[in-house]
C-alpha cells in the first residue's frame, strides 16, 4: 500500500492552515503544521516530510532565515507561500534555495499542481537516470542528449547549462543562480550570458525555438525546465 506523501506547513495564520488542510488532505496528502520557524526547523528532522510549505511572515523569525537553516542540511522541496509579491522577495527566496514561490491569496488548483511538480522532481540520484520530456532525453551519466532519438551535439557550456536545468527540473532558476553554477561567481551579473546560451539551447532542443515548450522563461526572474505531464 502506498503511503500518502507527508507535507509540513510552517505558517502561523490559522485561516491558511485550515485552507491547506481542506485542499491537501482530501487529495491524499498527510499534513503536519508548525506555527513558528523554530518549531518548523525541528519538525523537519522529527517528521521527515517529503515537502515543506513555508510562510515568510513567522512570529519568531523571518521565513527566509528558516529556509536558509533548512537548506544547510536538507534538500527537501520547499514551496514559499507568502503575501510578499515583489520581484526582490521572489528572487531572494529562489536564490536561497526555495523550489517554488506562490503568492497569497492563491488558487487551490495551482497549489496542488505545484505540490505535484515539487514531489515528482524531489532530489534523488539523478546521475544514474535517464531524464525525458517533450521528445528530449538526457543521460547524465553518459552525457548523451537526444531529440527524437537523434543525438544532439552540444558545446561543453551548453551541456553544463542543460544538465543544470535537468537536475533542477520543474524549479525556477534565477539568472544569478544559473550564472554562478555554470560560469562562476565572477559572472553573477552577466545576465546576457543566460539569454544567449538559452537561445542557443532552444535552437537545438526545441521544435519551435520561438515558442519554447521545454525551457520556459519566467519573466524578470530566470528560466524553468518544463516537465511533460
Poorly predicted tracts of residues:
none
Number of domain units: 2
Q: What's the mean pLDDT score?
A: 88
Oligomer: single chain
At the fourth CATH level, what is the homologous superfamily of the largest domain?
A: Response regulator
Largest sheet: 5 strands, parallel
Q: Compute the CA-based radius of gyration.
A: 18 Å
| Terminal Cα span | 24 Å
How much beta, percentage-wise? Answer: 15-25%
The CATH topology name of the largest domain reads: Rossmann fold
| Helix proportion | 25-40%
CATH classification class of the largest domain: Alpha Beta
Please, how many helices?
A: 8
Strand order of the largest sheet: 2-1-3-4-5
Shape: globular
Order of helices and strands: EHEHEHEHEHEEEEHEHHEE
How many distinct beta strands? 12
- Tell me the CATH architecture of the largest domain: 3-Layer(aba) Sandwich
Main structural class: alpha/beta
Note down, in words, how this protein is organized.
It contains 8 helices and 12 strands. The protein has 229 residues and is α/β, with parallel strands linked by helices. The protein has 2 domains: 6-120, Rossmann fold (3-Layer(aba) Sandwich); 126-225, Arc Repressor Mutant, subunit A (Orthogonal Bundle). The longest helix is centred in the last third of the chain and has 15 residues, at 191-205. The mean pLDDT is 88.
Distinctive features:
single chain, 229 residues, alpha/beta, Rossmann fold, Arc Repressor Mutant, subunit A, 2 domains, 5-stranded parallel β-sheet, 4-stranded antiparallel β-sheet
